[in-house]
Amino acid sequence: MLLFRSLLCAIGLAGVVYAKSSKGDSVLVVVEPKQQDNYSIFFNGLREQGYDITFRAPKAETPAVIEFDAPSFAHVILFAPDTKILAKDLTPQSVVDLLSHNTNVIVALSSKQTAISTLAAEFSLVLPPPGSPLMSYFPERTDPATVVPVPVPASHPMLTPNLPPVWFSGVPHSLGNNPLLVPILRAPSESFAAEIDGGSADALVDAAERGGEGLWAGSQLGLVTGFQTLNGARITWVGGVDIFSDEFANKEVVKGLKSGNEQFVRDISAWTFHESMVLRIDETTHHRVNSTTPLEQYTTNDQIVYEARISSYDPKTTTWVPYSGLKDLQLEFTMLDPHIRTALLPVKGQPGKYSVTFRAPDRHGVFKFVINYKRKGLTYLQSSTTVAVVPPRHDGYPRFLSAAWPYYTGAISTSIAFFLFSAIWLAADSRDQKKGKGHKSE
Hints:
Elements: H1 2-18, E1 26-30, H2 40-48, E2 52-56, E3 66-67, E4 70-71, E5 75-78, H3 92-100, E6 104-108, H4 115-119, E7 125-126, E8 134-135, E9 148-150, E10 166-168, E11 173-175, E12 181-186, E13 192-193, H5 201-211, E14 221-228, E15 234-238, H6 246-250, E16 252-254, E17 257-258, H7 261-272, E18 279-288, E19 297-299, E20 303-314, E21 319-322, E22 330-335, E23 337-343, E24 345-346, E25 353-359, E26 365-373, E27 381-390, H8 405-441
Parallel strand pairs: 1-2, 1-5, 5-6, 6-15, 19-27
Antiparallel strand pairs: 3-4, 7-11, 8-13, 9-10, 11-14, 12-14, 14-15, 16-17, 18-20, 20-21, 20-25, 22-23, 22-26, 24-25, 26-27
Subunit structure: Component of the oligosaccharyltransferase (OST) complex.
InterPro entries: DDOST_48_kDa_subunit, OST48_MD, OST48_N
Family: Belongs to the DDOST 48 kDa subunit family.
């Protein structure tokens, strides 16, 4: 029995050491069996990171993606862009269900009309008409116009700095106004969507006019775009599966300069699988100034201290470390609407700790301490704590109010005047009685 427990502990520790994602290390790859070897560099890189990869054909029924209303894998990769008929548990609605169960997804799109292509519209991505891949004739090269070298942003927080251009072949998309979208890679300014492979120029123009996107050209088009749901699940839309291929990973951009595809796809998978840009709130506390005890209710005009501890996930050590890099974090003290909105700043010398001191409003009721931090690419930070703000008790008010001295003076002067008036009146009446008695004796 002791040996069995030791074995379980060893297995658990091994999982902690090698699992690089904060959500788990199980990955389901949906790909045609004959095409698996086309992406061996990408898959081997995931295995080296400690991921447990399971392959499945697009039309196969097992292994199930969701079983007994629970996801079977922490992450899913859909590398079957041209498959028109998928298994029942890989329908567009099933992908949405995966995200609702906090399963992360990478989706490769196709220039053809497929079920997965129709799902993109649910995420505010607008695709050009079928048969309209991205094209560019610049820079001059011997490759087909549909194989485009795309410059990578030099300072994107999600990507390795100063990556060489990546090779791309696939379909672009325009981005809607959804604030949950995370642009990662945009098309070159000289590129455009073209009507080849059965496409129609008239259909392309009609789609542009109907959708209001303007021309399907330029850097406004997206090639790789992320989407982070409100519950924290991430999905990455990639315009073409070839960006993950061994051919593009080994292909040179110019003579002697290897493309950045291998590292680029590793970066976007790290973000999708919750390795990078992952934050969490470990603890929040509140108390009065000069006290450390949290209260369920505060008195109006109390000086309140609110503190939060935030950490970030380190995929190299698979641990959570204190993080003080947020400079625009805010705290709201709300009752229906925010009564107080103030900066929640990091505390010097205390990593991961953020603190602010503020005065409770002169308004009694049920209030909430609210942190609602949403920035593109970063994990959303949300916290809500309910407290009551009450008026002072009858013995909690000060004996004298400095603002009321005019009223005190009026009351005291009136009392003194009444006392003097009464004394003078009584004294005058006493003298009148003495005079009356003197006249009777005569």
